[in-house]
Every structure is written in C-alpha cells, then in structure tokens.
Amino acid sequence: VVMSSTSSLKNSTCKDLTGSKNRIINLDHGDPTVYERFWRQTGDKSTIIIPGWQSMSYFSDVSNICWFLEAEFAKEVVRLHRVVGNAVTEGRHIVVGTGSSQLFLAALYALSPNHASQPINVVCASPYYSSYPSMTDYLKSGLYKWAGDADSYEKDGPYIELVTSPNNPDGHVRKSKVNRSQGLLVHDLAYYWPQYTPISSPSDHDLTLFTVSKSTGHAGMRIGWALVKDKEVAKKMTKFIELNTIGVSKDSQLRAAKILSAVSDSCEQENSKENESFFKFSHKVMANRWKQLREVVHHSELFSLSQFSPAFCNFFNRVLEPQPAFVWLKCEGNVEDCESFLRAHNIITRSGKHFGVSPKYVRISLLDTDENFTQFLDRLSTIQSL
Ligand code: PMP
C-alpha cells in the first residue's frame, strides 16, 4: 500500500491486500470512532434538520454573559450533568467553545493576571496530556508560559495548574499536586464519564472543562463547554472566543443539544436490553476491550499495565473498575524506546516522552474501530511469542 504522509494519519481505513501484518495500525490519536455503532442504531432520535433560514445571526442571547451560547445546548448540558451526576451546575456560568481545546486557551487567557511583568507559569503533573505544553507555548504569549511538571514546582507567586481527571494518558484519578494556595486551577474532566471511571461525586471546582469528543464520541462536532464559577472569568473567556472566532458554530451547538438530549433520554428511558443507554453500551464496550487487553498483556513478559482501584459508581450504583480511554503501556526489560519497538511491528503509538516521562511508556488509543482494536491485540500477542 502506498500512502502519502497525510493519508497515513488516518490509515485505519486503508486495507492492505498483501497481508494483515503489514497493515499499519494507527492508535496515536484518541479518535472516538468506537461509538459509531451506538449512534447508527439511534436513527431519528439523534438527527436534526436545519432549514436554510435558521442560525443566521452571530448572536444567541445578548443578555447572557456568553452571548453566543444556544439556550437549547445550555439546557441539555445542565440536564446531562444532572442525569449522570458528574458535575454541579448550580451557580455556574456555561461558556461554549470550539472543542474544549479552545476553552483551554480561553481559560489561560482569562486566568492570566492583567498587568504582570512576567508570564504566569502553567504546570501539570507528569505524565500530562501531550498537547498542554505546545498549546500553551506555540504563540509565545506574554501572558502565560509552560513551566512543566507540577510535582516539582516550587516557585513563589501565582500559577495555573491543570488537573486532568481521570488523566490522559494514564487514566488515574487526580487532584491538584502543587501544595500551595496561590494556584488557579483548571480541571479538565474530558474523561469524567461513566464508561471510563466510577462517578464518585459531582465535580465542584472553579473552572471545569468538558467535551463531547470523549463523552459521546462526536469529536468532529468540535463542541466543548466550561462550567465557570467566577463571573469575571466567564466574561474574559467569552471575550477570548469573541476575539478568536466571534462565537461558536450554532449548527454544531444545535446538533450537540440533540446528541446530549439523546444520551439523557437513553438513560432515563432505559428499560430493556434492546433499549440500552449510551453509557451502558459504551461501558460494556470498554469493559470488553480492557478484559481482552489484560489477558494478552498478562501472558507477556515484554509489557505491563497499571492497576486501578475499583470504586463505587453513583451512576451505575455499584463498585466498578476504571477502564480508561487510553492504554498506558510499559515496555519491560531492555526495550528503552517502546514507540519505536511497536512501530517496527506496524503499530503507531505515542511515546511517553511527549507526556513528560520515559520512552519506556507509550499511550495507545482504546477508542478506535473494532477492526483496529482486534488487529492490535492479535499483533501484540504475536510479538510476545516471537
Ligand atoms: N483535554 C484532554 C485531556 C483531551 O484528551 C482532549 C482530546 N484529546 C482534549 C482536552 C481536547 O478535546 P476537544 O476535542 O474537545 O478539543
């Protein structure tokens, strides 16, 4: 198979007729195609039609701090958090963003002091989401700058700490790490949904980010939301988005409202096996994948996985084990560069070095298609028997 560098990015659909061993499996990105099967079954329940005359204005509700926020979307955000029990929405301003990525930048802008002589330091405990350092520094802002691992951060003065829980890449539940009071915290809860981790209590922080990308799997819709306690911070985040993209696609917000509503409906109307809720479906898929993966890795001397403690999940009403969206795999023995090792077996992963830790680790997406996941497991088991 001949592939250009761009097509190799999304090569999972590219079939190799010369034998499956040569097919490259790209599990570098967390592209959530695993959920497509659920959404295909929902038909009209998750479909919207937008007539040509609709959504023409820039504005949604000029009386709202976030003047481009569609009321229907805001309503479904509040409803879904109530149904799932993963976030307090009372006393919060909702700011919508083009993915939580835009909201991350809006949060850095909003939390940076106005007239500081130095950029404020931005930290996160390693292993941290590999995009944080690059997103923070790529425009060489005078307002904020990446300052690395929160575990070893000891400088005086204000700082911004990113808390990702459960964490990307390793799936662990986290709390803030810097042991000081001057921190401005951004909680990135992209994975705080029942299919990935037990919902122990509603999150209740100053500034929390969520996204449809990992919750429902609609990464291509580019919709995220922030729950913000402080009015001035919500205003500044809104200003950032105004300066950046003059609002957020109304079409996407309306579609997101429909998708979130279909998820809440599926939870509230669940009464039989045929009528499975979105989270029951996605939890089952993830449980199945983790079970198969653990079996393969268990028989291996080359690889190891982290262990997770079970906890009570208020959503499913029972004790459950975490089942993260990514595998954080460690190469044991004398393999120092796990990414290159797996690349030689035509599996593309992301090295631990992008997450601020050793290249003995790699991050592997568990959200890809059934076909790619099965191929990946097959290949992993053959690597060990070689
Ligand atoms: N935060 C974390 C921890 C993520 O893993 C991702 C997606 N990889 C994002 C934010 C960005 O999500 P979005 O698609 O909403 O921009």
From TrEMBL:
Gene3D superfamilies: Aspartate Aminotransferase, domain 1 (3.90.1150.10), EGF-like, alliinase (2.10.25.30), Type I PLP-dependent aspartate aminotransferase-like (Major domain) (3.40.640.10)
Subunit annotation: Homodimer.
Keywords of this entry: Aminotransferase, Pyridoxal phosphate, Signal, Transferase
GO biological process, one term: amino acid metabolic process
Entry-linked InterPro entries: Alliinase_C (IPR006948), Alliinase_N_sf (IPR037029), Ethylene_sulfur-biosynth (IPR050478), PyrdxlP-dep_Trfase (IPR015424), PyrdxlP-dep_Trfase_major (IPR015421), PyrdxlP-dep_Trfase_small (IPR015422)
EC number, as in UniProt: 2.6.1.-
Required cofactor names: pyridoxal 5'-phosphate
Domain Alliinase C-terminal: 25-383
Family statement drawn from the similarity comment of this UniProt entry: Belongs to the alliinase family.
Sample GO molecular function, one term: transaminase activity
Organismal lineage: Eukaryota, Viridiplantae, Streptophyta, Embryophyta, Tracheophyta
Protein name: Putative transaminase
Pfam assignment, any one: Alliinase_C
